[in-house]
Amino acid sequence: MTPPSSVLYMVMTPPYSVLYNVMTPPSSVLYHVMAPPFSVFTNVLYIDKVKVEEKRVSLPRHGVKMPRYPWSDGPEYITQCAIKQGGKFSQKVIFSAEEGTLWWHAHSDWSRATVHGAIIVYPKHGTVYPFPRPYAEVPIVLGEWWKQDVMKVLEEFVRIGGTPNDSDAFAINGQPGTFKLTVEHGKTYLLRIINAAMNEILFLAIAKHKLTVVGTDASYTKPLKAKYITISPGQTIDALFHANCHHGRYYIAARAYSAGNVPFDNTTTTAIIQYAGKKSTATSPPLFPHLSYRNDTRAKVNFTGSLRSLGSKNHPINVPLKITTPMISTVSLNTLPCHPNRTCLGPNGTRLAASMNNLSWVNPSIDILQAYYYHIKGVFGDRFPNFPPYVFNFTADYFPMELEIPKKTRQVKILKYNSTVEVVFQGTNLVAGINHPMHLHGHSFYVVGWGFGNHDKFRDPLTYNLVDPPLLNIVDVPRNGWITIRFKASNPG
């Protein structure tokens, strides 16, 4: 289930081959605008005259920090207004510490569901991968497919206020079951895996083969051998795959993980690994991998909890130890009253909403960064609370109805330059406990701790990993649980 937008916005004092024809997918057709991967070998890249054919849209580079240049970071009404239909837009993209796999996507409404592609950032000249060089590299983009125009799905969702229609299938590289990867026996391949699904955490495995995770969100990790991976929406994972099995055909399979009693796409998508050579046969059916059950929370957290930053001379770990700005924010599913003269299908005739610290975001008429830079008053406030305004048993089974209704507002958090920030994201069971993906633009962050239930400010910090926590740009808060992240606010924007 894709919850309504609820966002904390922080305001602070390889050949690049691209196809950018942004179109609304026609009804009942699988239509992905997926470009060849952006392959980057340089620090600054200019994309000249992005042209939008249909629908307004903005086009961020997910996970690219864009140091000192936030003006085209992408989030609509935050760092820029959308590119108008028929308009053109020139972009400057600045790369810094990123190395590995990222992606780009549309950032207006649900357009990113079908408008996206890979970004591959290679090691700097004179340096090498911190693992044996693979024989080949293959982007694996996990996406969703609707039998109707996904924008119509969104419009209906907003109109009725209930849960949106789930996708009809998942897809691998834009194909719901027909993508094929031919490999040579004995060779090692680097799979650059991207979860472009709207809001689904996915399990992925390859029959009879193990994966060795070596990076996530364009940051290297200690090698992690695994029979499967769990990948959050918007996350990227780099994994080595050694083609060391008997000649034949093997399925790559992916399906959703879902905790709680909420609707989700329960289909399984596949692709085929085909061994090259005379011994290979297309007559025998491909072998299918063991995939974790859809509600297997233990399998999900066993994988994500095992990720560790590499920590080498060329890729050091810099976890902030002295925190100057501590924050705790609840993340909740909420309800709002139905519009007059309408019938809404949310709980008890309401509309679904979402909030952080009981505040639900309302888009302005101009972008926040412009208003901040030019001192335009009345566009946003600077009183996003550091702590929840209401303290209660966040993961209880029953709540007073008034706790479910958030305040609609545009409050932001102002951070001092070079401040060290710790944020505890606390999931709640309001309306329905779900996993909440959290993404931060302009920064990566260390995930130093996580757990289930209510965060304990005295007990839980004693369990934090301050030695080699994973460095990510997106993380999901577990259902009725919490995540603690740390980062240095060193990129004004």
TrEMBL record:
Identify the SUPFAM superfamilies for this entry. Answer: Cupredoxins
Task: Enumerate the GO terms in the molecular function aspect.
Answer: copper ion binding; hydroquinone:oxygen oxidoreductase activity
Source organism per entry reads Camellia sinensis (Tea plant)
Broadest EC class assigned to this enzyme? oxidoreductase
Query: EC number(s) per UniProt?
Result: 1.10.3.2
Tell me the cofactors it needs: Cu cation
Question: Where in the cell does this protein reside?
Answer: Secreted, Extracellular space, Apoplast
Please report which protein family the annotation says this sequence is part of. Answer: Belongs to the multicopper oxidase family.
NCBIfam families listed in its UniProt record: laccase
Cited PANTHER family: LACCASE-15 (PTHR11709:SF443), MULTI-COPPER OXIDASE (PTHR11709)
The note on the cofactor says:
Binds 4 Cu cations per monomer.
Q: What does this protein do?
A: Lignin degradation and detoxification of lignin-derived products.
Q: Which reaction does it catalyse?
A: 4 hydroquinone + O2 = 4 benzosemiquinone + 2 H2O
Q: Which terms under GO biological process does the entry name?
A: lignin catabolic process
| Stored InterPro entries | Cu-oxidase-like_N, Cu-oxidase_2nd, Cu-oxidase_C, Cu-oxidase_fam, Cupredoxin, CuRO_2_LCC, Laccase
Single GO cellular component annotation?
Answer: apoplast
The UniProt keyword set, sorted, is:
Apoplast, Copper, Glycoprotein, Lignin degradation, Metal-binding, Oxidoreductase, Repeat, Secreted
Domain Plastocyanin-like, residue spans: 55-124, 137-277, 402-493
Can you name this protein? Answer: Laccase
